[in-house]
Amino acid sequence: MGESSLHIICVAPMMGYTDRHFLHLLRIMSKHAVLYTEMITAQAIVRGDQLHLLSFSESAHPVAVQLGGSDPGLLSQAAKIAAQFGYDEINLNVGCPSERVQSGCFGAALMKTPDLVADIVLRMRESVSIPVTVKTRLGVDDCDSDYFLQDFVGKISEAGCKTIILHARKAWLKGLSPKENREIPPLQYDRVYRIKQLFPRLEIIMNGGIKTHAQVATELHRVDGAMVGRVVCSNPYWLSAVDQKFYGSKQAVLSREEIVTQYLKYVSREAKRGVSVRYLMRHLTGLYQGELGAKAWRREMNNHTVIASPS
User: Fold this and answer.
1) Which of 19, 44, 110, 297 could cysteine-pair with 48, CB 3.0–4.6 Å?
2) Does 96 qualify as catalytic in the annotation?
């Protein structure tokens, strides 16, 4: 089902992980997977250091910026600014359950106001020429029935959202931490499949609990794409073969050594601009996960003194 989708493989927006440096590393491994930035609030973009917040490597395409907020006007402004930086997609966060996000009445809390989400999508679409997508959950608190989810998806699709990323869990705004919200609410893939059946013209991307390439292949029979998160943070090399497996690439899969060599050139450039080498090297920590010498590699990364790959 995912053959014609641009979103066959997506890397999820993750706070503390998917900064521009990590996206650069991932792009060395895959030329086709869609990469998502950490969530950036609309207010920060409109009133803050836009160059610092929105800059990314030219090689990062296709890349999407995830926005957080609940004010349609502010989000419209932020989307317009982000589009001017060259992003390929604007994604609205309607799934994060953290208390910080809740205090701003956005993220998963927005699910309780479908009409507001639809208005935000419409306003952002009017301000940019690139796609506006939504990342959300199956429900939030007691707003988690099939009827509620169908109504929610229907309203945002009518507003012009053509691609919806569904984390196949509901969210609890009270009583569970963000980490627990990724683990305790049960995965319900069947509900995502039903949404695809009810809205066949929408591009539906499955998110949640996907850890293997075999799982991705299975999901692509039922939905249009798969979004992965923590597995790529803990083992970035997971992404190295997706172009060959899912996009038909004939290019050879890069070795870990080749990836390190390319990334170190980037580290050298960024360090000259004042970026901390330790900060840059942390993204390589999991590159050898599961391989002989992985523990020593992690230790080297923590010391940011890598000279050669483990043997």
Assistant:
1) 44
2) yes
